[in-house]
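Question:
Now give any protein.
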Amino acid sequence: MQFVDEARFLVRGGRGGDGSVSFNREKYKPRGGPDGGRGGDGGSVILRATEDLQTLEPYAYRKLVKADRGRHGSGNNRAGERGGDTLLEVPVGTLVYDEDGLLADLSEPGETFVVAQGGEGGRGNGSFATSTRRAPAFRERGLPGEEREVRLELRVLSDVGLVGLPNAGKSSLLRALSAARPRVGAYPFTTLSPQLGVVDERVYREPFVVADIPGLISGASEGRGLGNRFLRHVARARLLALVLDASEDPEGAEGTLRAELHAAGLSGKPTLTVLNKIDLLDQELRAYLREAFPEAFQVSAETGEGVLGLRDRFEQKLREMGEPAVPEVNEREHRVFRPTWRGMRVGREDGAYVVSGEAVERLALKTDWGNQEGVERFQRELEKIGAVDALRRAGAEPGDEVRIGETAFDFR
């Protein structure tokens, strides 16, 4: 399966079912009355994090994901069946964005997020019967579900991220540290996607995850090479290991890496410096590097020299750092009808009077415009909530066009 770390598509919750207009016609019940049931709520689109998936490839070419609509109500006060939810499994570490920013951070296995809520079902005529209105012959329509364009971004979760220039030996080091078997080649950019390995030895109280991050180059934070695409994975590592090729200008390599991390806003992350390929150096060069990099670990992924000590240092450092902090994400509503204000507002637009507000827009969406009694109820409700008086104060006269959401009618 191809590694894909970003996907963009439209999600749409199911529409709520319509209420029913029905009257009880059973024998020996001459006054059975209205018994139309309400419609079922629409299904929702739900994201769930799973460890069984490592890529967003299943959603790379999706254009629309939608949930089932609710079923309509029926007679004898039978409610419609709720629409089925659509469950999308995504890798752990998936960030969910819409046009306004971050919606959710699915960083724990089994964590879920409702990305598009289903619409509410409409009431049947049985819900409108009162002592003074005994035979209502209208119902409500179901509301549309939430709809939004989302962008999924996968950031690989790891305890230790191996960061270095191309061909620094990161993949070989991952092989030496864990049971992972990434591709190793004697050429730059052998690693095109993050590779994970679990360090799980009996001497450690808790196993930890090491990630081989594709090679960064100078200018990576500005989009050069592969670095800009995979800096996001560096951001999710708790500890960064700067892997330097000890035989190829390690001072310059370290400067390049730290400059790119700073440009990407990641310079504050804890780091350890690792000098790899020391098997290619003589004792004099090793002594020089110990003076130039007093805190660095000298290892050889090829021969295994120093690897066990480095592994112990990783485990010790992670234990000192404690548990990773969980970012807080504020969930926001984003409905199709998008009322701009919870009260009510009247304005002019293209020669028409536009009424906006949560209550009045929901009322227009739920009205069955093909039913005269339903339209009359809509007019009564407009008067009750003060919309008619507000239109008159704004200058509306009989015959003027009024728009509420996508509904347009003449003012009376």
